[in-house]
Specification:
One of its GO terms (molecular function) is citrate synthase activity. The structure is a single chain. The chain has 16 helices and 3 strands. The protein has about 375 residues and is an all-alpha fold. It has 2 domains: about 200 residues, Citrate Synthase, domain 1; about 110 residues, Cytochrome p450-Terp, domain 2 (Orthogonal Bundle), CATH 1.10.230. Strands 1-2-3 form a 3-stranded antiparallel β-sheet. The radius of gyration is 21 Å and the shape is globular. About 45% of the residues are buried. It binds carboxymethyl coenzyme *A (CMC). The site of carboxymethyl coenzyme *A has 19 residues, from loops.
C-alpha cells in the first residue's frame, strides 16, 4: 500500500550523492573529503579544514595564507548587523540573533544574487569570517559588557575567544575550542544541512539557505542538544566542592529517575550511529583537558554518572553534543550560546553542501500520502 512506502523522518533513505563527507556507522568513522575527522582534529587548523570542505583538497601554504589574510581582515560586523542585533530583546534566544544576523548579512552582500561558484565561495568565506563576531557581540551584550573588536594577530579560535571574553585564552583552551570547531564542521545529510540543500534546490541564495539551516539547527533534537545537555547538568546541580564519586552518584540517580519517567535525555542517541558517535572520543579528550585545566573533577563525575546509567539502562551512547556542552561551559560561555557556536562551525559544511547542490541541482520536492477527509463539496 501507499503507507507502507512512507519512511518517517526519511530514516534510511538515500537522497543524493555527496563528496563532502562520509559517515560510516559500521566502522564508526567520519571522513571529511576522505580524511578521518580525528586526524584533522589532531593536526589541522579550523581554517585548513574549512578550505578542505569547500575545495575538496587541503590548501597549499599559499592558498592557506591568502585565506587567512582574507579571514582576518573581514571579521568586523557591519553597522547594520549590529543595529539589527541591538533591536532584538536581550532575552530572546541567541539562535534567533544568529539567524537574523545571517539574514541581514545576505541583504548587505553585493553579490547576494550571484550564484556562480566563485561568488558562492566568497560568500561562504565571508560568513565564516564574520559569524564569530555575532556570537561574541551577543554574548557580551547579554552581560552588559562593551564590544571587543577582533584582532588580526590572532587565529580564528584565539580571536573567537578574545572577542567573547576580552582576554587572550590559554593555549590549552584555544586548542579544545579548535577541536570542537573541526568536529562540528560537517556531518553529511543531517537536518540542517538537508534544509540548506532544499532551499538551494529552489535556486534561492546562499544566505537564505544558511538562515533556514540555522532554524533547523536550533531544535533540541539537532544542534540545540549541546545547550540541553548543560541544562541537564544544571538540573542535577553543579557543585564545585563535590568529589567525582559523589557527583557521579547523584547523576546516576537523576538519570535512572529520568528514564523511569520515559524522558528523552539530550546528548544521547543518534539517528545514524547506533554504536557510538565517531566524534565523541576526540571531543571527550578535549573535555578531559579542560576539566584538568580548570580543576573541575566534579564535572567528570556528572559526565560519567549520566553516561554509565544511560548505558546500563538502555545501551544508548553519547553523541558529540554531550562532551561539547560541558566544554563550552568550562570555557565560560553562557549555556544559550553553545548552539550559536555550532553555527559558526557548521557554516563550513552547510556552504560546502550548498555549492555541491548548486553544481548538480535537482529541485527537492518529495511526495506525500494523503490521509485527510475524502473529497467533499460545499452545499
Ligand atoms: N534518551 C532516551 N531514550 C532515547 C534517546 C535519548 N536521548 N535516544 C533514543 N532513545 C530511545 C527512544 O526513546 C526509542 O526507544 P523506544 O524504541 O523504546 O521508543 C529508541 O531509543 C529509538 O529512538 P528514536 O528517537 O526513535 O531514534 P531516532 O533515530 O529517531 O533518534 C535522536 C535519534 C538523535 C533524535 C534521538 O536519539 C534523540 O532524541 N536524542 C536526544 C537529542 C540529541 O541528543 N540530539 C543530538 C543528535 S547528534 C548531534 C546533532 O545533530 O546535533
Amino acid at each position: 500500500t501507499e503507507t507502507e512506502e512512507i519512511r518517517k523522518g526519511l530514516a534510511g533513505v538515500v537522497v543524493d550523492y555527496t563528496a563532502v563527507s562520509k559517515v560510516n556507522p559500521e566502522s564508526n568513522s567520519l571522513l571529511y573529503r576522505g580524511y578521518p575527522v580525528q586526524e584533522l582534529a589532531a593536526q589541522k587548523s579550523f581554517e585548513e579544514v574549512a578550505l578542505l570542505l569547500w575545495n575538496g583538497e587541503l590548501p597549499t601554504e599559499a592558498e592557506l595564507q591568502e585565506f587567512v589574510t582574507f579571514e582576518r581582515s573581514n571579521r568586523a560586523l557591519d553597522e547594520n548587523v549590529k543595529a539589527a542585533i541591538d533591536l532584538l530583546p536581550k532575552n530572546c534566544h541567541p539562535m534567533d540573533v544568529g539567524r537574523t544576523a545571517v539574514s541581514v548579512m545576505g541583504a548587505n552582500h553585493p553579490k547576494a544574487e550571484d550564484s556562480s561558484p566563485e561568488a558562492e565561495l566568497e560568500k561562504a568565506k565571508h560568513l565564516f569570517a564574520k559569524f564569530p563576531a555575532v556570537v561574541a557581540y551577543d554574548q557580551r551584550r547579554r552581560r552588559d559588557q562593551d564590544v571587543v573588536e577582533p584582532r588580526e594577530d590572532l587565529d580564528y579560535s584565539q580571536n573567537f575567544l578574545w572577542m567573547t571574553f576580552g582576554e587572550e585564552a590559554a593555549p590549552e583552551v584555544v586548542d579544545a575550542f579548535r577541536v570542537s570547531m573541526v568536529l562540528y564542521a560537517e556531518h553529511s545529510f543531517n537536518a540542517s544541512t538537508f534544509t540548506a540543500r532544499v532551499i538551494t534546490s529552489t535556486l534561492s541564495d546562499l544566505h537564505s539557505a544558511v538562515t533556514g539551516a540555522i532554524g533547523a539547527l536550533k531544535g533540541p533534537l539537532h544542534g540545540g542538544a549541546n545547550e540541553a545537555v548543560m541544562h541537564t547538568f544544571h538540573e542535577i546541580g553543579i557543585r564545585k566542592e563535590e568529589s567525582r564519586e559523589e557527583a557521579a552518584a547523584r547523576a546516576k540517580a537523576w538519570m535512572e529517575d529520568a528514564l523511569a519517567q520515559k524522558k528523552k535525555v539530550m546528548g544521547f542517541g543518534h539517528r545514524v550511529y547506533k554504536n557510538g558517535d565517531s566524534r565523541v572520543p576526540t571531543m571527550k579528550a578535549a573535555l578531559d583537558k579542560m576539566i584538568e585545566y580548570y580543576g573541575r573533577s566534579e564535572m567528570l563525575g556528572l559526565y560519567d554518572g549520566l553516561e554509565q546509567a544511560m548505558g546500563e539502562a538502555k545501551n544508548i551512547k553519547p553523541n558529540l553534543d554531550y562532551p561539547a556542552g560541558p566544554t563550552y561551559h568550562l570555557m565560560g560561555f553562557d549555556t544559550e550560546m553553545f548552539t550559536p557556536i555550532f553555527i559558526a562551525a557548521r557554516i563550513t559544511g552547510w556552504t560546502a553542501h550548498i555549492r555541491e547542490q548548486r553544481a548538480a541541482n535537482a529541485l527537492i520536492r518529495p511526495l506525500s500520502a494523503y490521509n485527510g477527509p475524502e473529497e467533499r463539496h460545499l452545499s
